[in-house]
Amino acid sequence: MGKVYERIDGRLRAFIEQQKIFFTATAPLAGDGTVNLSPKGLTGSFAVLDELTVAYLDFAGSNAETIAHLRENGRITLMWCAFTGPPNIVRVHGRGEPVFRDDPRFAGLLEHFPDIDVDAHGLRAIIVVTADLIRDTCGFAVPFMDYREDRTLHGDRFRREDDDTLSAYFEKKEHVATSIDGLPGLPLPLPPRA
């Protein structure tokens, strides 16, 4: 049924890269802290960097729980489900880090995402995840669902923003600079690109 993998390659990598949506899960260290689960899925916003490292683009939104949790403790799980084809669920448990726009590594990491217009989505950071445990399970109970297309709403909303107006948008949101549990979130004003 389930299997543990030493690396992300071959059939496993192909499966991950073919999925249209994945989920991220993080939590603060506090036992009564808020667990966060987020869907991700804009085409071109995910990349396998090497056999143990993946990354995804963190775009504008009304909170920054994942960033806050990663800044505090680095724990993250990514999950992909097969909604078409043979049933399968893949999880990558690991350590994540938000690489902000003013980080010297940012430009090099951004080169892994050539198929998406990052300026249309209010790019905040690149989340880099190093795998500690890679595993799959059957996915027998996951329903079949058909992908039609990406929604255009996010790009339609944020492509008209520049760094100043995007920072102003984030500053108005209660849980962008600080998480629900009071942890530091996205640095504001938004750091310029390095």
From TrEMBL:
Entry-linked Pfam families: PNPOx_N
InterPro entries: Pyridox_Oxase_N (IPR011576), Split_barrel_FMN-bd (IPR012349)
Domain Pyridoxamine 5'-phosphate oxidase N-terminal: 10-138
Domain of life of the native organism: Bacteria
Protein name: Pyridoxamine 5'-phosphate oxidase family protein
Organism: Streptomyces cuspidosporus
